[in-house]
Amino acid sequence: MGLAVFAILGISLADLWPQSTATVWSLEGAAALLHLLRRRTGACWLLTAATFFALHHFHRHWSPARLISSRLGATGQPVWVEGVVATEPEPAGSSASSSILLRSRCTVRVDEIRIDQERLRAVFPVLVTWTGPAPRLGDRVRLGGFGENLPPARNPGTFDSARYRQRTGIYSRVQTRFERDCQVLAHGAGNAWVAWGVEARHWAKTQLGRGLEEQPQSARLIDSMVLGVRGESLEELRELFQTTGTLHLFAVSGLNVAMLAALVAVLLKPLGTGPIVRVLLTLPVLGAYALITGGGPSCVRATLMGVLVLGGILLARRTLLPNQLAAAGCLILAWDTNQLFLPGFQFSFILVIALMTGVPWIQTRLEPLGLPDPLIPRTLWTPAQRVWARVWSTLAASLSVTATAWLASLLLMAGYFHIVAPGALLANLLAVPLAFGILALGLGSVSTGAFAPGLGMLLNETNALLTRVLVGALQLCARIPGSHFYVESPRLRPPCEIQVLDVGPGAAAHVRVAGRDWLVDCGSAALYASVVRPALRSRGVNRLDGLILTHGDAAHVAGAAEAVADFAPTQIFESGLGDRSRTRRGFHRQLAAAGRGKALCVRGDTLPVAPGVFWEVLYPPAGLARATADDKALVLRLTADGFRVLWTSDSGFNTESWLVENEPDLHAAILIKGRHERDFSGTPEFLARVNPQVIIAAAPGWRQTQPDPGSDALGGQGAVVFPQERSGAVLVRIEPAQWTVAGFLDAQIFRSRAR
Question: What is the C-alpha separation between 680 and 693, in angstroms, rounded?
């Protein structure tokens, strides 16, 4: 355990404190010399810390992938690469584009790259978008395209794919445009064991899907739980598993490996095999299962732990779980030090440590509560008491495991997913036995499908029934009031805060004042699901106090129906002018079906938010005739204790001219400006009347037909401009003494003078 702890300390220090290679070798040499001179436990721990410090230094700071990413720069460059396809290609792009061009995505392990006529030999992985018929796993390929670094997350609360992939060693991607730029040089150049695992997984997936052609959701869920197969079609179910605290069932992890080892033992024991024989037969089964499921990190961790436990039996060594856990951790970190920073690694080891220490403590206190009087000898127990004692002992063990796992994962779930799920206690009690049954039936189907297809189909049908029971049970658990809620990471909250999210040409902004949460626009349906909802949940929003929809553009309101379903806003406000938006009419029908109302706003309306905080509707006036939805958009001004923020949505020249002529006081400290689809906006006359200190400008849309003023033009009046194509989301914090504006992507920040 001491070695594992100091390995973690060494890796953490190297990640936070990058040093030169000379310094790293000096530290390693000093630690080695100290260990030679003083062969003590402390010296051994220091040598371990120094060794893992050096390992992480080279893994993280001097990896070829990171060095190549620095060569590509911020803008990227055309490149040619040659390497081996390391992951199975998956379809990429929409169906519309795929009808013209075949595109797929995969990871290529590059061994040669050409950048700006310079050939570099280095082994590192890159993501590739392949054009043309997809290659096969293990093919040696040569391709030319545009190489660029992975783009970071642009909004808070969203999954930062670039950061995660960097921890797995991938920093860059290559996107190809033409089929002629993608060549397959040879087949079978990859790892033969990995290729066998892929073929075996396809075969097993075929066996699991027999007879379930008309039950695709059940078939995909079985594939995911038994083989670790992922798919976008399971995203809705994935959210259900997450909110009920059973997401671990979605990944092939320690639970699957433990279940598999137990099933093998149960099958072999009636054959009269001894412990050694059972271990020798179980080890290759676990190894084969890891290959078939794709060798994911969670499965590899669990398999390694299983091998260490079973290896102790082979060596006739007493099982010491802390030692085996520490050994597994050291081996995994020696293989890849970046594993320490992946959520799966942290969940796995923290949960196992908690189960080792917490379960015995809880179980010894629960069991006596359901047993007969301890003064009565067991020989005098009645048959009913004996049955109940066995049932209660099993239930106490299950409750102990579930409660310990829930408590141990509480902070991790809140930190990574911003969710607390008290209902996970009940959900896991129901789900884990069902998951065991699904895995057992799935393995039975794979084992018998080849020589008894009828039996395999029967097992699959039974398995499909179990998956429906599982999903139904989790849905019931999710509907229990208080079964889950979202929380925000601890931080100091200002009296007023505005988060302007980056949703391209659309709009979505979260306003929090005195604990009240409002949302202005929702973005498109896709961006609501991927950006707006995660951002709100990361801020601990469980219910909205108000929802304002400025106009009927789909890029602003298409996510409104889901927002109402997810956050049940107390009040809904819209522009009082009608438009031809089918998206808006569809939203109105959904509101009517749900029995929800809405309020229509026109110039002169005031919407109270909190004491001293209110919205003013400056535009449009009632009865105004305009042709396009952008020209009917609400123009809002938020006033918080005298501080003003002006929203113009997608207003263009006509709206700005009307406001200049009809609104005597347009002044605001901050202007949040969208972009009109067809018209000019941000005219000098309008900006002079508003006289903002800061302008937050939405990113341009691909349908925009008129040029919009750039940062220089918008800042011509002396304002500081935050263009969202560069800044991403923008956070405004309004405090009694001063207010600040900060971009999410770049280091741009504006601090006002004392108010």
Answer: 21
The 8-class DSSP code of residue 708 comes to -
pLDDT at residue 647 greater than cutoff 50: yes
Whether 496-751 and 71-190 are alike in CATH topology: the answer is no
| List of E strands, 92-215 | 103-115, 118-120, 124-131, 140-149, 172-175, 182-186
Cβ proximity of 181 and 144 under 8 Å = yes
Identify whether the C-beta of residue 613 lies closer than 8 Å to the C-beta of residue 641.
yes
Integer Cα distance of 276 and 258 in angstroms: 18
Are the CB atoms for 67 and 122 separated by under 8 Å? Answer: yes
Return the bridge partners of 500, or none: 509, 730
CA torsion angle for 362, 365, 370, 371 (degrees, to 10)? Answer: 130
CATH architecture group of domain 496-751: 4-Layer Sandwich (3.60)
Say whether 755 sits in a helix, a strand or coil: coil
In terms of DSSP bridges, do strands 670-673 and 643-649 run parallel, antiparallel, or are they unpaired? parallel
Query: Integer distance in angstroms from the first to the last C-alpha of the chain?
Result: 55
What are the residue ranges of helices labelled H in 568-615? 582-594
Which residue did the predictor score with more confidence, 500 or 372? 500
Task: State whether the Cα torsion 711-714-719-725 is positive or negative.
Answer: negative
Return the sign of the alpha-carbon dihedral for residues 444, 449, 452, 457.
positive
Distances (CA, A) of 312 to 262, 276, 316, 440, 682: 17, 11, 6, 26, 73
Average pLDDT, the chain: 88
Structure tokens at 56: 């992480």
Position 95 scores a pLDDT of 42
Cα–Cα distance for residue pair 230/224, rounded to 1 Å: 6
CA distance 644 to 503: 23
The residue among 183, 99, 190 whose CA lies nearest residue 141 is 183
Give 151 or 263, the one with higher predicted confidence. 151
The DSSP secondary-structure symbol of 488 reads B
Q: Where are the beta strands (DSSP E) in 488-590?
A: 496-500, 509-513, 516-520, 546-549, 571-575
Q: Tell me: the pLDDT tens digits for 125-164? A: 999 999 999 999 999 999 999 999 999 999 999 989 999 9
For residues 744 and 531, is the Cβ–Cβ distance under 8 A? no
Cα–Cα–Cα angle for 437, 342, 5, rounded to 5 degrees: 105
Q: Report d(CA 273, CA 281) in Å as an integer.
A: 10
| Least confident stretch, 213-227, 240-254, 479-493, 661-675 | 240-254
CATH code matching the domain that covers 71-190, chosen among 3.40.120.10, 2.40.50.140, 3.30.430.20, 3.40.80.10: 2.40.50.140
> What 3-state DSSP class applies to 540?
coil
Which residues lie below 8 Å from residue 100, measured CB to CB, with a gap of 6+? none
Provide the pairing of β-strand 140-149 with 77-85: antiparallel
Query: CA nearest 598: which of 528, 544, 549, 631?
Result: 549
CA 533 – CA 525 distance, rounded (Å) = 11
pLDDT the model gives residue 717: 65
Q: Go through 151-184 and write b for each residue having 16 or more CB atoms within 10 A of its CB, e for each that does not.
A: eebbbbbbeeeeeebbbebbbbbbbbeeeebbeb
Please say whether the beta carbons of 217 and 314 come within 8 A. Answer: no
pLDDT in tens, 25-78: 999 999 999 988 888 899 999 999 999 999 999 888 888 999 999 999 888 999
In this predicted structure, the answer to whether residue 101 has a pLDDT above a threshold of 70 is: no
Domain ranges across the chain: 2-61, 71-190, 199-360+420-479, 361-419, 496-751
Cβ atoms of 84 and 190 within 8 Å: the answer is yes
| Token pair belonging to 703 | 């349908």
Question: Can you give the length of the chain in residues?
Answer: 755
Residue-by-residue DSSP string for 280-312: HHHHHHHHHHHHHTT--HHHHHHHHHHHHHHHH
Give the model's pLDDT for residue 755: 54
The single-letter code of the amino acid at 558 is A
